[in-house]
Amino acid sequence: MPACRLPSCLALVLLSACAGGPSAPSAAYTQAFERAAQQDSMRSECDWNVRYAPVAPKDASVAQLQAIATARLAALQLTPVWTLSMPGSEAHAFVDSAQDRAGLQLLLSIVLPAMERYPAGVFARTGLRHVVLVKDLSVDGQRRLAMPAPEIDSVVYADNLLAALCPAGMELRVHHEYYHFIEYRLFNDFYYRDPAWLALNPPGTAYGQGGATAYGKGFQNLGHPQPALVSLYAAYGPEEDKAEVFGWMMTPAYALRLQQWTAFDPALLAKRQLLMDVLRSKTDSY
Length: 286
What we know:
Elements: H1 6-18, H2 27-39, H3 62-74, E1 79-81, E2 89-92, H4 98-115, H5 122-126, E3 130-139, E4 142-143, E5 146-149, E6 154-159, H6 167-187, H7 195-198, E7 223-226, E8 229-231, H8 238-250, H9 252-262, H10 266-281
Parallel strand pairs: 1-3, 3-6
Antiparallel strand pairs: 2-3, 3-4, 5-6, 7-8
Helix pairs in contact: 3-4, 4-6, 6-8, 8-9, 8-10, 9-10
């Protein structure tokens, strides 16, 4: 896979993110941007050549971008929400500034085609009604890019210095968090230890203490670290294992590698098949 040296990529992305703005970014913003890039858990597995087409002209206002999102999500029987009010979570709404216009444009360029990859009926059958689109999301003080919110029939996606991060890695997160939503709808539990899933693991497979324990450690989500696990993050818990396989399966920039690994990893193949069956069971044509 083509490699990208971080300083070069960072300079290019920062320039493109700020192009057309009225002034150069502040030193604090630049430092935060660089820190986010260095801490991006997906950067080692990123194909930096994969880019997502803008959803509107570069000078589109936030209101125009929101109208585009509303129309495209309506075709999927989904409704966008532009604010978030949940205990333990904090986020801000987009305003019509140059920085927010660029951030929302980038977020929509990834989230909208990701949601449009699903077969008809999936969202209605899983009870998803809303897609929350915000910026600066944090959960219990931890910076986040996405989270499931089944209590409000939603998934949440955020611009959190997204321009510094792997674009395809953000799409993987879109699908990953939606699978957490599906899992909750199936079992009324984010952390259900599904015996059918656990039975697919080779003897001796051990999980960690949950995905939250990976945050804040410069974690790099390397692919296929051992048989039956699609990624290192999958090892943090069976709930993350499922969501990771689903995310790799649904993201074109990662799906080919997953398919290649399943050719010689029967446990991973079985996991992929189980999740494909779950997805098919929620479609109108099943």
